[in-house]
Amino acid sequence: MKLIPAIAVVLLSSPAFASEQHRHHTASPYTDETGRQIKSLSEADIDELLRGGGWGLAKPAELNGYPGPSHLLSMKDEIGLTQEQVHRVDSIFADMQRQAAELGKRYVVAERELDDAFSKRTVMQDQLVAQITKSDALRSRLRFVHLAAHLEVTAILTPEQIAKYNELRGYRK
């Protein structure tokens, strides 16, 4: 009976077994992304950015009780927004979306330029900082636009409307 554990030890420590185990750990989770036009962005990401969508950038506001203008407009009746509030939220949303679409377009271009530099193998380390800084600055400004809109619309809502929003969105029961 001591032979079976000894055989198991020999088999499990064999190079073939170790190689098979190693192969499972080296496959990249990114293999499906190699065909993307911009490797760091999916097609859905690009569409969202170009249309001025939220892209999840306002989660700190949204998940901490600061309603978003788009969702407020779609739930205006359930939340009980007044006509004046609807007008103000609509104005804030339109301004946010306009700015976000412009910044989103510029961000996509910056990411495309960074991707192209690597793709064409023309990337230079001394230029890399500038390329990353440009892209990150645009993303930062984009995030500010979305978060600021949440602040603006929250300021014109009553505590009851905010509570109703959070309830309807599933954040507070």
Commentary on this structure:
Helices cover 70% and strands 0% of the residues. It is built from 9 helices and no strands. The N and C termini lie far apart (61 Å).
Count up the helices. Answer: 9
The total beta strand count reads 0
Instruction: Point out poorly predicted stretches.
Output: 6-11
Our estimate of the beta-strand percent is under 5%
* End-to-end distance: 61 Å
What kind of sheet is the major sheet?
none
The outline comes out as elongated
Tell me the helix content. Answer: 55-70%
* Radius of gyration computed on alpha carbons: 25 Å
Secondary structural class: mainly alpha
Give the SSE string: HHHHHHHHH
How confident overall, as mean pLDDT?
89
In short:
The protein has 173 residues and is mostly helical. Helices cover 70% and strands 0% of the residues. The chain is elongated.
